[in-house]
Amino acid sequence: MADKRLKDKIAVVTGGASGIGKATAIRFAQHGAAVYILDLTPENLAETKQEIESIGGTAAVIQCDVSNPGLVEESINRIGGENGRIDVIFANAGINGTMAPIETLEMDDWDQTIHTNLRSTFATVKYAIPYMKENGGSMIITSSINGNRVFSNIGASAYSTSKAGQTAFMKMAALELAQYAIRVNAVCPGSIDTNIGKNTYKSEELEEVQIPVEFPDGNHPLEQAPGKPEQVANLVLFLASDESFHVTGTEIFVDGAESLLRG
Ligand code: NAD
């Protein structure tokens, strides 16, 4: 590929062994970045690394549970230590977690979703700052239409709260880190065809609190189908590159107008 927008950049992708993270890791590598992928399972990590190397890209993988801040710190320190700097952070790992009525949602289930999606974002951003302060860089967070424009997914209270928290945190970080030329933005995907269903646990009580919501026919107005991970990856690439240099502190919806219908 002639266009190497991330030539020689050091990029970190959390949750980079599946779905949106994997598509973005591949896109980053195609554009010349050395990509470090953090995820849970060694098999998926190895497969992603192999895929990137088969297209001539550079990837290293680290098994890391991002809900554990100590492991995030260790991983980021390793990457920063090896390279002396980090240029791009994609804080993307996430789960839908347990979907249950608020009345019966267990504290542990709430914590698991919040820690996996929101606290991990804080940890990833926090521990990367020392390695980005000197040269600046770009941080991108995967939020969602849920918690930002859509509030009708009954049962997803922890998920939506984590996703709303991510955009609030993104704005705080964008302003605070602007002095170091570190930009911070969020992407808010609509429904995207990935493996996230495997991390979704619907409780039996959920039916009791469901509000019948009639989604209009064609609730994916632009393409009449869910989006593809690569479509999100293209936006993340733009935010990671200098082409978006004046963009910081904003969330961008990548949902084919789905959220405008479903709010
Ligand atoms: P996915 O399940 O295909 O990929 C998520 C990856 O994150 C997986 O490889 C998983 O192993 C990893 N992960 C989960 N928990 C982790 C942990 N504790 N530590 C390290 N890695 C962990 O799903 P996806 O749809 O690509 O999800 C990526 C992000 O996109 C999530 O933050 C999700 O909330 C967000 N999102 C997805 C959609 C959608 O419709 N798919 C819509 C809006 C937002």
Automatic annotation (TrEMBL):
The record's GO molecular-function terms, alphabetically, read: oxidoreductase activity, acting on the CH-OH group of donors, NAD or NADP as acceptor
Origin, by domain of life?
Bacteria
The transmembrane segments are none
Name of the protein described by the UniProt record: 3-ketoacyl-ACP reductase
Q: Which Gene3D superfamilies match?
A: NAD(P)-binding Rossmann-like Domain
Which species is this record about?
Answer: Paenibacillus graminis
* A Pfam family this chain is assigned to: adh_short_C2
Entry keyword annotation includes ATP-binding:
no
Sorted alphabetically, which SUPFAM superfamilies does this protein's record hold? NAD(P)-binding Rossmann-fold domains
As for family, the record states: Belongs to the short-chain dehydrogenases/reductases (SDR) family.
| Any single biological process term in GO | bile acid metabolic process
- Which UniProt key words apply to this protein? Oxidoreductase
